[in-house]
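Subject: Protein record for review, amino acid sequence with backbone structure tokens
Category: Structural biology, sequence-to-fold work with a learned token vocabulary.
Format: Residues in single-letter code; tokens as whole numbers, each standing for a residue.
Body of memo: The sequence and its backbone structure tokens, given next.
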Amino acid sequence: MTLNTYGWEQALVPTSPDDPVYPYPRLNFDAVADPAPRTYRAVFLQNEYVQLVVLPELGGRILRWTDRTTGRQLFYANPVIKPTRWGYRGWWLATGGLEWAFPTDEHGLNEYRPWDYQLLWNGIRVWDTDDRTGMKVEVTVQLEAGSSRIAITPYITNPTDEAQPFQFWANAMLTLSDLNLPSTDLTFVLPATEVIVHATGDGALPSPGGLMGWPSYSGRDFSRYP
């Protein structure tokens, strides 16, 4: 698969042990080159209802999820791969799709680099090892026969003798419309009665880290978009 990609790899800056993101790199944005076509190895999975495109080279993410009955894309189709100033490292590779973020909150530390992968009879298994703790993150993506659903199974392994704090996030960049924008019919269905606020500019919500009811809070239905 060929995608327009900014030349970010040449702008990576090694870190020292006193840097909180060590040994992961920082990025010199002034050294990032203009975008150019780049070819990535892509794994295509499909049944009669869905087609998935997985990019092991970019964090093992699901880049595309297509409803084959309508031709619609479920994820935002980013026209270019571009580093931004978000994320724990001070930069994040804005790619789109469904990314696996580990071991920190938000976008993690290893979404930008190649993950190992293994093809399964009905899906794919991707995995990576955290450079700081040695913890292993693994995600299995499987299609269900005769169904538009997919099964996503994360698995975290700590091979060390010490307890290691971590977070695992699955970040979905949704669109669900023909305009590459979220549809007004979008509904979020989560098997939970409470959620934790990560960040917000809405003064009616709890502050970051606070709990709020799900799907309703203060008379508002947060399962509906917008």
The longest strand covers residues 136-143.
